[in-house]
Amino acid sequence: MSQFWIRVIAILEIVGGVCGIVFQVPYLLAAPADRHPLIAGITFAIYLLSLVAGITLLLELPFGRIASIVIQAIELPKYMSQLLIFMFSFGFDAYPYGMLTKNAQPIFGVEFKFLAFNQLFVNVADTPVGFGISIPACAFLIMLLKYRPKQTVLDNGSLSDAGRTEQIAGSERG
Which of 101, 113, 137, 146 could form a disulfide with 89 if both were Cys (CB 3.0 to 4.6 A apart)? Predict the structure, then answer.
């Protein structure tokens, strides 16, 4: 696995996390009637997780890989219906989608999102039904599932490079 792509994923998660947090602060402070404070808090927490995931992935910590997989799994589906609208983007996103309007007219397209984007709503009347899949999230999930961080957590809780652990153990034996 190329370190270049891991860094790209980490940087996009950091940028998406920072921008998402900045975008969510007005919702948390004002809590307008059209947006429930609980939903604003959930989106804030997701963007905070994106920031932490990006930083820990950049530091090659095992938690960074796990958190990044969670973030990419959140970014993967794009779903719309009258019951639930769920879309998150971190850094950069491109996704094809299909939707069926209330007049049963199919619409297909491709969306591109930059920085941070989210739609998390419950019970929205007259919403078309639609579904999309994030192309970068699909690719990044595959990369993250194959990636193994260089640092590991030892039994005593300290961090160590996986390769250096063998060297140290070998030198202590001799």
Answer: 113
Instruction: Give pTM, 2 decimals.
Output: 0.81
Tallying the residues shown for the chain, one arrives at 174
As beta bridge partners, residue 132 has: 78, 97
Q: What is residue 159's three-state secondary structure?
A: strand
CB within 8 Å of 1: residues ≥ 6 apart = 143, 146, 147, 148
Q: Distance between alpha carbon 119 and the CA centroid of its chain, in Å?
A: 14
pLDDT interval class at 157 (50, 70, 90): low
Q: Which run of H or of E encompasses 121? A: strand 106-122
pLDDT digits (tens, 9 = 90+) for 24-44: 887 777 755 556 777 888 888
Phi–psi pair at 104, nearest 5 degrees: 60, 35
The number of folded domains in the chain is 1
Residue 110 tokens, joined: 């491709």
CA dist 45 and 51 (Å) reads: 10
Q: What range does the domain containing 126 cover?
A: 3-173
